[in-house]
Amino acid sequence: LRTLEGHQSVVFSAMFAPGGQEILTASKDHTAKIWSTTSGQCLRTLEGHRRDVFCAVFSHDGQRVLTASEDGTAKIWAAASGECLVTLGHRLAVRSASFSPIVRGGWHQEV
């Protein structure tokens, strides 16, 4: 059992990465964080949202992170580097988001 300390405000969501080696949290402090399950240390802080981050989820392969924020955006991040890859804008707050596997032409892809 570990306590993960580092967010400056309330944590809205938490989830394990595929494989269970990392934990992803989303917070009212406008960030998402990736933590080591072994050490409890923060590995990466995903910064770029201007308001609360309500939800953060790993892709099925653990390579990407998707965040949903009160600032009206959803962002896709590279889990390994913490780099923001895509920002998707909406008119209102984005309360949740998820990755969905799609099969096209016999190949499995994530969108």
Task: Please give a structural write-up.
This protein is mainly β and 111 residues long. 0% of the residues lie in helices and 50% in strands. The chain has no helices and ten strands. The chain has strands at residues 11-16, 22-27, 31-36, 42-47, 53-58, 64-69, 73-78, 84-89, 101-104, 107-110. The chain has a four-stranded antiparallel sheet with strand order 1-2-3-4, with no helix packed on it. Strands 5-6-7-8 form a four-stranded antiparallel sheet, with no helix packed on it. Strands 9-10 form a two-stranded antiparallel sheet. A hairpin with a 5-residue loop joins strand 1 (11-16) and strand 2 (22-27). The radius of gyration is 14 Å and the shape is globular. It starts with 10 loop residues before the first strand and ends with a strand. The mean pLDDT is 92.
Mean pLDDT: 92
Characterize the main sheet.
4 strands, antiparallel
Order of helices and strands: EEEEEEEEEE
Sheet with the most strands: spatial strand order: 1-2-3-4
Q: Measured on Cα atoms, how large is the radius of gyration?
A: 14 Å
Structural class: mainly beta
What ranges have pLDDT less than 50 throughout 5 or more consecutive residues? none
Number of helices: 0
User: How far apart are the first and last residues' alpha carbons, in Å?
Assistant: 34 Å
Short description:
With 111 residues, this protein is mostly beta strands.
